[in-house]
Write a structure and sequence with these properties.
611 residues, 7-stranded antiparallel sheet
């Protein structure tokens, strides 16, 4: 949600900022802008996409060695030119870009208006830069001191970067609850909301912590906390393959990332799993082996697609480990006074590692004595740092807003965790453990085989041109995949879709079924197979259209349904890794045929870093 870039150094800032903003488009946004010191402060911003900004400045090239940029996702105020960032101070000598929400901005704004300040936007961000200016004026202090005093007064989440005409060789940045990474170059520094705009310039980065202020010059970086205590920057090596942030010939990032899944699942398992030697190593969990074995219960918190991964985890962990599992929306967990006891284990699942609701829920669980583990994709992210320990998914950068490869990587890690706990506490027989390890090693090849159905799925997608509603049905391990399939179709094509347990169809959804309602049925072979066949017949008896995901070699269901898609045979506990693939492809092609922006669906953000 929103994106910040900034540069200070010896190169031209404008092209670096524009390219950085392009890299951040996947986060979701509705307006864009940059601020440059040349030597006066110049602001260029507009509603719309980065291309609109590029056209605006095509004939207005500005020479500057320092600048800030922003892609805005509207919170306070509609998407307009005036509400776009950067925002200026009242005297026009400072500019700010801000991600997050200042919760007490109305009180601050009222006070500032009473002092004669005027506002050109509806944003909380403009209030913040005016507030900093007011403090600097009243206290007769420098910008660093004024920023520290302001941050002590504001309530909410933020990452801010400020440049000042009075200090043209310095950028000021601070964070609380939203991500900020600083890249260290040769006589230059790069700032961004994540590493994607930085990777092509340097592999040395610093992840700024909450309540830290960064003072950045071309050849100097210093960090201080809000008490003015100097902190030592922890410089880390950035491990980001530039190829993962390029389309490499694919029409869209989403399609590329769907096709990357055989590799990303392999990368997730590599070095952790060896079926031949029955070896399973999860270094991030070794310290907590006993706590996991003796856990009274496991609580999983997540949002969106990661919540669906958590639902799959509930089925898997209860089956293999015999530990009760609860799956919670992180956004609800913190507000309902949850019961958490010592001996509970909380697992937080997040692609970005920056989901605001998940972070707050983790803090709540830690404060009550739970062991908190993180499953996330981004090294150095806030969730990774807040967790006691955990496991990275190693899916690589995911640009498409609708998660695909991150989801199957999460499922892969969850399966490894469940196998480890199940074997450690002897809830899982040696034979079943060996069989599942062996089968898990084959999943990358089976996912690749599922992708062979792409052309058939593309053909089925052409039938959705006039569809306005859709039903996804599954049972057992496939029920969460029905939910995920419905979410993907909603996100990408804007078709209303619902996921349901197949057995619940008769408790309401059956009233919707007619010849206009496609029903996507996850009908792979497991203990529910006969019941699923009965359900399909009930749909067909009401003229419903059935598209079935079936196990390769199934000769019975094809004769009953309108369309079918084969997936390779695999144990039911592993089937979610396979059965989700055709649903991802279906949602992608339906979105493409409807002319939707499948990589950047309307109103959506890749990482929801504010409540």
């Amino acid at each position: 949600m929103c994106g910040i870039v900034a540069y200070i150094g010896n190169k031209e800032a404008q092209p670096i900022l524009l390219k950085g903003l392009k890299r951040l488009e996947y986060r979701g946004y509705d307006s864009v802008g940059i601020g440059l010191l040349s030597p006066d402060l110049k602001i260029l911003k507009t509603k719309g996409k980065v291309e609109s900004l590029v056209k605006m400045i095509a004939d207005n090239q500005i020479t500057a060695k320092v600048g800030i940029g922003h892609t805005r996702w509207a919170t306070h105020g509609e998407p307009t030119d005036e509400n776009s960032h950067p925002h200026l101070s009242a005297n026009g000598r400072m500019a700010i870009v801000h991600n997050g929400i200042i919760e007490n901005y109305t009180i601050l704004k009222k006070d500032l208006i009473s002092k004669g300040y005027c506002f050109k936007s509806d944003t909380d961000s403009e209030v913040l830069i005016h507030f900093i200016e007011d403090i600097q004026s009243r206290e007769q202090c420098n910008l660093e001191q004024a920023l520290r005093l302001a941050l002590d007064r504001i309530v909410g989440a933020y990452v801010i970067v400020i440049l000042s005409q009075d200090e043209p060789e310095t950028l000021y940045a601070a964070r609380k609850g939203s991500p900020l990474v600083i890249g260290i170059g040769d006589g230059e520094h790069f700032l961004a909301s994540d590493a994607t705009p930085i990777a092509e310039h340097t592999d040395k980065v610093v992840y700024v912590n909450d309540y830290e202020i960064a003072i950045i010059k071309s050849n100097e970086l210093s960090l201080k906390n809000l008490n003015n205590e100097v902190k030592t920057p922890n410089i880390q090596k950035l491990d980001l393959d530039l190829a993962t942030i390029e389309k490499e010939g694919y029409a869209h990032f989403m399609l590329k990332e769907i096709h990357e899944q055989p590799k990303t699942i392999y990368d997730c398992l590599r070095g952790r799993l060896n079926a031949k030697s029955e070896s399973l190593i999860l270094g991030g969990l070794m310290q907590y082996t006993e706590e996991l074995k003796s856990a009274h219960r496991i609580i999983i918190i997540a949002c969106g697609t990661s919540w669906h991964a958590g639902l799959v985890a509930e089925y898997i962990i209860e089956d293999l480990c015999r530990i009760p599992v609860e799956v919670e929306y992180a956004s609800e967990f913190r507000y309902r006074n949850p019961i958490i006891n010592k001996g509970d284990v909380l697992i937080a699942i997040s692609q970005s590692g920056e989901t605001a609701d998940t972070l707050v829920a983790m803090e709540e669980a830690k404060s009550k004595g739970a062991i908190v583990l993180g499953v996330c994709n981004v090294v150095g992210s806030s969730i990774a740092r807040l967790s006691h320990d955990g496991a990275y998914t190693h899916a690589g950068t995911e640009i498409g807003v609708a998660s695909t490869k991150a989801f199957t990587a999460q499922l892969s890690v969850i399966m490894l965790i469940a196998l480890k706990i199940g074997r450690d506490k002897e809830a899982l027989s040696k034979k079943r453990y060996h069989n599942l390890l062996t089968e898990l090693e084959t999943i990358p090849q089976k996912v690749a085989k599922a992708l062979f159905q792409e052309e058939k799925i593309r053909g089925i997608a052409t039938q959705f041109e006039q569809v306005s509603n859709c039903l996804f049905l599954g049972r057992g391990f496939n029920f969460p995949i029905a939910l995920e399939g419905a979410l993907k179709l909603k996100e990408i094509s804007y078709i209303h879709a619902e996921g349901y347990p197949f057995a619940e169809m008769k408790h309401g959804p059956i009233a919707l079924i007619d010849e206009k309602l496609p029903c996507i049925v996850l009908a792979t072979k497991d203990k529910n197979y006969e019941k699923i066949i009965s359900g399909i017949q009930e749909i067909k008896a009401r003229q419903g259209k059935v598209i079935a995901i079936i196990t390769e070699g199934d000769n019975l269901i094809p004769s009953m349904v309108d369309e079918y898609i084969f997936v390779p045979e695999v144990s039911p506990v592993l089937m979610p890794l396979i059965s989700v693939i055709p649903l991802q492809l279906l949602s992608y092609y339906v979105g493409v045929f409807k002319g939707c922006n499948v990589d950047q669906p309307r109103n959506l953000a890749k990482s929801v870093t504010v409540e």
